[in-house]
Each structure stands twice: as C-alpha cells, then as structure tokens.
Specification:
Layout: E1 11-17, E2 34-40, E3 53-57, E4 60-62, E5 67-70, E6 73-78
Parallel strand pairs: 2-5
Antiparallel strand pairs: 1-2, 3-6, 4-5
C-alpha cells in the first residue's frame, strides 16, 4: 500500500497477488500474477488492508512494471483477523 504526502493529490494503491497454492503456476512463472489497483482522490479505502481478500473489476491499463486498474469497483471477500 502506498500513501502520498499531503501536498500531492490523494491516492491509495495496493499490489494484489493471486496466492493460491493449489493452483499450478503457468510455465516459466516463478511467482503468482500481480496487479496494481489505485484509487485516485482517496488516502484510504475502508476494508482494504494487508491480508484482505478482494475481488476487483475495472478497465485494465498496461503500466510500465505491471497491469493497473484505476478506481475499480471492489468487493471484500474476507479479512484476516488481528489477534
């Protein structure tokens, strides 16, 4: 997750990775696929935190380093409980 300084436009982003050990990786891939999701104009998105399982939907943009979805619709599927 990334937070920007107060003098810059608000943006909240997270790197989402598919972490399913039961699903075999595609040939030649050492790590699961990753996707960056960015909410412009927000410094925080309620419920989106490390360990949350989410479903996102939106237009996919090809970024320099990884695919990105800006301002996606999202659904929280589950959260890790802090003990």
């Amino acid at each position: 997750m990334t937070f920007v300084p107060a003098d810059r436009t608000a943006e909240f982003s997270a790197i989402v990775s598919e972490d399913d050990a039961a699903r075999p990786a595609a040939p030649g891939q050492g790590r699961p696929p990753r996707l960056r999701v960015v909410w412009l104009g927000r410094r925080r998105v309620p419920g989106i935190e490390a360990g949350a399982e989410i479903r996102v939907e939106g237009m996919l943009a090809r970024g320099k380093d990884m695919p990105t979805i800006f301002n996606p619709r999202y659904e929280i599927l589950s959260r890790q409980e802090n003990e």
